[in-house]
Amino acid sequence: MSEPNGSAWGMCSAFGCPLLGTVGSESRWYCFCHVNKPSTFNDAITRELREKQLHIVDSTLDIRRVGGSFYGEDSTYRTIQQRLISADRRDLLMSQAEKQAGGVRAWLLRLERALIDATAGFGEQKPIALTTPTAPVIGPTHAANFHPYADGAEA
Ligand SMILES: [Zn+2]
To answer: How many angstroms does the Cα of residue 25 sit away from the middle of ligand 1?
Structure first.
């Protein structure tokens, strides 16, 4: 099976994306950042991931590679720690609560959420499972004199 755009097997179908393809969409696999985005934004998202968020990208890949447990993988854990600290993202280190709960998975989700947030500005992402769908705010269409934010001066 060959990918039309030359993505390595298992990787996101968006050209050049450093993340794994983990979400299926229209018979292709995309990462959680590219899925459901208009393809015109693919390159902008990839650039953001590669140029500005690579310390987080690499950390999520490391965590997935060890299979969600750092047992016997101390050096991997330290590598991630050092990477996040040198990128000035101590806020993304594994929290005490996550450690106590054995929550490598929770930590991974938090890192991946940070990537989703970092790329959220590129195109509208359609609601996917586990995200809160946000409906467009629709104002009144009929009451021409309805000014919800007026302070009464116009009344
Ligand atoms: Zn991707």
So the answer is: 12
